[in-house]
Design brief:
Blueprint lengths: L8 E2 L2 E2 H22 L8 H26 L1 H31 L4 H32 L3 H19 L10 H9 L12 E5 L6 E5 L1 H27 L3 H13 L1 H8 L9 H21 L7 H22 L8
Antiparallel strand pairs: 1-2, 3-4
């Protein structure tokens, strides 16, 4: 059997690297769906934390392999992208919790929505990153647009604060309710159900609130990808590093959701820290040009990013700690 295709380069890296990564992702998804969560059930906080630790460990281990295989600079770029995307995912958890609350999704079926949501994310991110890589390869000045966008986004996040999105007023929710048959109640784990039309009596397909929640989760990821994809391209333009760091950070989002949803209020100062990180990442390109550097040092970028996010987490935990009970 001719295995020469394995060393053929695709998007800057040998095919065997891409196939190895995709094999790991498929194996993790199969293990999650086929072994851990074969049946619908509620995920407790302890299990959520253990699974999250496993996914973070795998993501960091893959980063170690990138460091060993491709060098220290790409390894640090991967870790920086992984940390930034993981932090953005924390903000995404807050929006997902609002979506589940609005559509009254039972906890027993939330994992099902998140699982199919992750599959959609893997495909959508591949498309967006592919388009971004093509644009950057053809027009290098696009990086400056990405950088300026990140600075503006960071400033906007600081100014707007924690303003909650109004799910009920979302144009897509109103469109689906206007154009499709939508049930008022859930029908177990079904996204679609066939029932009698109340006006004609004919059996027709209805969309359930579970499917509407899935659509909104996918749309939420597209919106967050508008921030995260430019952010990772401002860190590195290597498509392999961009995609793998994104996907490894997102893979653990399902597990992380059930732990964070119960204590999201403890991280209320993380968003300003994330806003500062986005502004820092966006400004790196301009700073490197001003200093006459070919690239902003990867080690410094990783150190600053970790420091800002760690400060945001620690300050949040300190400010939201329980007051001591007087004796």
């Amino acid at each position: 059997m001719d295995l020469a295709f394995l060393v053929v380069e695709w998007l800057g890296k040998p095919a065997w690297m891409w196939l190895s990564f995709l094999g790991i992702v498929v194996a993790l998804l199969a293990f999650d769906l086929g072994v851990l969560h074969r049946d619908n059930r509620e995920i407790e906080v302890r299990e959520s934390l253990l699974l999250s630790a496993m996914y973070v460990g795998l993501g960091l281990a893959f980063g170690g392999w990138v460091w060993w295989q491709l060098g220290a600079e790409l390894g640090m770029n991967y870790l920086t992208g992984f940390v930034v995307e993981k932090t953005l995912a924390l903000d995404n958890v807050f929006v997902i919790a609002l979506i589940f609350s609005f559509f009254a999704v039972p906890r027993i079926y939330q994992h099902r929505v998140l699982f199919w949501g992750i599959l959609g994310v893997i495909v959508l991110r591949a498309i967006m990153i592919g388009l971004g890589a093509t644009l950057v390869a053809e027009f290098s000045w696009v990086l400056y647009i990405f950088a300026a966008f990140l600075i503006v986004t960071g400033i906007k996040m600081l100014v707007m604060g924690d303003k909650e999105p109004e799910i009920g007023q979302n144009p897509l929710v109103r469109f689906m309710r206007r154009r499709f048959n939508v049930t008022d109640e859930h029908h177990g784990q079904d996204f679609f159900v066939k029932k009698a039309n109340p006006q004609t009596g004919r059996m027709v397909w209805f969309v359930t609130p579970l499917f509407m929640a899935l659509v909104m989760v996918e749309i939420a990821d597209v919106i967050f990808a508008v921030d995260s994809v430019p952010a990772i391209f401002a860190i590195t333009t290597d498509p392999f590093i961009v995609y793998t760091s994104n996907i490894f950070a997102i893979l653990g989002l399902r597990a992380l959701y059930f732990a964070l949803a119960a204590m999201i209020h403890r991280f209320q100062y993380l968003k300003p820290a994330l806003a500062i990180v986005l502004m820092f990442i966006g400004s790196k390109i301009f700073v490197a040009d001003l200093l006459g550097l070919e690239k902003f040092p990867a080690a410094l970028s990783l150190g600053v990013t970790l420091s800002i996010i760690a400060a945001g987490i620690l300050y949040s935990l300190w400010r939201t700690r329980k007051p001591e009970i007087a004796a």
